[in-house]
Amino acid sequence: MDSSGEHLADFLTPEGPMSLDAHAAVVRKYRGSFDTNGDRGYGAFHPDTGRMLGEVCLLRRAGIDALEVGYWLRLDALGQGFATEMTSAMVKSAFELDKVKRVDLMCSPENERSAAVARRLGFSLEGRLRDRQLAPHLPRGDLLCFTLLASEYPQSPAYPLHLAAFDFLGRQTL
Ligand SMILES: CC(C)(COP(=O)(O)OP(=O)(O)OC[C@H]1O[C@@H](n2cnc3c(N)ncnc32)[C@H](O)[C@@H]1OP(=O)(O)O)[C@@H](O)C(=O)NCCC(=O)NCCS
User: Fold this and answer.
1) Which of 59, 72, 120, 165 makes an SS bond possible with 174, Cβ 3.0 to 4.6 Å?
2) Domain segments of the chain: what residues?
3) Is the CB of residue 73 below 6 angstroms from any atom belonging to ligand 1?
């Protein structure tokens, strides 16, 4: 994150680079909420080198029988399809493991790269929500709301993705 500079400034680091302690607190919070079946955050790592590429998450704030997907990539990992692949994995697990009826994806109208991820995976633009702020560290403003419904999922490029998922006992769930 620190090496990505301005690229992540609006999204993750409003007050400059985060300290190691602040990072550890975020990771522990996600670990706790993962265990209690709340929001789920995942790291994305290069399979050959183990280098961290970014994060992807499934958030509960979308309401009943729905999840919202969010993601970021480090600056030098852009443009290679990683965000599309990470988001596909979340879409697949949301529909096949969580059995949700809808996955939401929100981004600012200026965030063309994020909107392109949504469109690439077959999400529909539901509308432009006005004057929203989804979390304290995010800027306030309009948001584009994209959704993919369970009935549309089999037509999404996420559907044929090969994905293995495991629970905390190491049992394969997908
Ligand atoms: C949003 C974000 C993750 C999108 O990253 P991205 O690199 O544009 O998206 P992808 O990793 O899916 O890569 C897509 C690009 O790789 C190319 N690509 C190459 N191989 C690909 C493949 N197998 N599958 C899909 N795309 C592929 C695509 O053609 C596309 O190219 P383009 O950038 O020239 O159009 C990134 O801009 C980011 O981290 N932004 C800051 C944080 C943020 O805004 N998060 C989202 C908040 S809503």
Assistant:
1) 165
2) 2-155
3) yes
